[in-house]
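ok trying again, last paste got cut off:
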Amino acid sequence: MTENGIPDGLVAVVKRDCPTCRLIAPALAELAQARGLAVYCEDDPDFPEGIAGVVDGRELEASFRLGIEIVPTLLRRDRGREAARAVGWHRDEWRALSGVAGLGATLPESRPGCGSRTQEPGMAYRLKARFTNTGLASREIRLPAEADLEQACYERGWTDGLPVVPPTVERVLEMLDGCRRAPGEAIGLMPPNLVECTVEKVAINAVMAGCLPAYMPVVLAVAEAALIPEFNLHAIVATTNAVAPVVMVNGPIARAIGMNAKGNVFGQGNRANASIGRALQLLVRNVGGGLPGEIDRAVFGNPGKYSFCFAEDESDPRWDSYAVEKGFPPDASTVTLFAGDGVTPIIDHTARTPEELLVSYTDALLATYNRRQVNEVACFLVVGGEHQQVFYQAGWSKADLRRALDERLTIPVHELVPGRAGLGPLGPEIRAQPDLRLPKFRTGGYNIIRAGGSAGKYSAIVSAIGSSGLRPVTREIAP
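nice, full thing came through this time. structure:
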């Protein structure tokens, strides 16, 4: 009886490149003569010499279906099923399995085997793609071997203008192995076209963005957070403002996958930061249809529309992280999404006390968008490494900093555009109080986080639209 062409009886899988396989070639010949033996060679159909009918196993189908990890492997099969297995060369095991009492009498008692070719990098996914039903639902596009795959992706409108990693079946299968969720599981409707987004589609775009499989749980959490109504992804994509989704990661997973929270935190050079943020942007483009010049009507846009993703600096326990402030335990891993339109540095090399540094923070925060705008403005205040030390050394908590800023971040009505508070009209009851001080972030809000390098007295503002229909959202990352 055979299964997938593999016969019952004794079956050996070997390769010429393995010293142990070459050593035991005489034992293989003994077995072939005494009991009959089907031999599959992974790299040379002429090995072992002297055995008739060696099967050309270079395609590795038999090795894959038999689950071979080490060669030589000897199996006994009965009625299409495996009855026994011996891995490497152990003379007593081979004798017991084969029933040939004097097998390999002149050979050493034991020798370790070598890795099967199935264990070569990426081979498992190539074999899975070739010899199994992958379960993927996406349409497969076949291109000639000589085709420029990166250019083909660009011509089909799948890219953000930069080259992408072609999403081959093998790469998508490997990406899906980075999480525990089924490829066909729907996570929601992706704006702006409200197209169903599945785990498989997330994996495809994560491949294109350059993610590693270890990033997949983060990318999935980012995609799911983007679909939370309070985040209002449709508005972020369609607005004429310059905003783009900003991704912040907290917790152990940020460190486990090597995300950057310190020097050049918003810049280039870190694969996890760059590719996770880019994966979301490609999902919006390729699944949701958010194309620039069409539904995306931004006047300027910003480089964050390629990718804007970072980890919060949680290295000093004296301040709680943003995620802990939002009620998550310190050992939880989370993603936070907010709309951001750029980074404005706050440069203060002279302040040595919190009170002195507050002057610079206040002036910069009040100028966000413009000093007269108090509606539909929000921001994240990012406290840099050396500025953090100013607050730590003075014993200030994050709550102390917020209280001090709240007292200062107000603007009198008489300084605002007559009849308007930013983009929202001032009612007559407010216009009648010219000395009334309105909060700068009247309809939005500001948050305080930590990130950036430890050399240089800098902080930063990531500004954004702020309104009741556009809020930061935080989601815990599942495995």
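cool. Residues 419-423 have pLDDT under 50 and may be disordered. Residues 168 and 204 are 9 Å apart (CA to CA).
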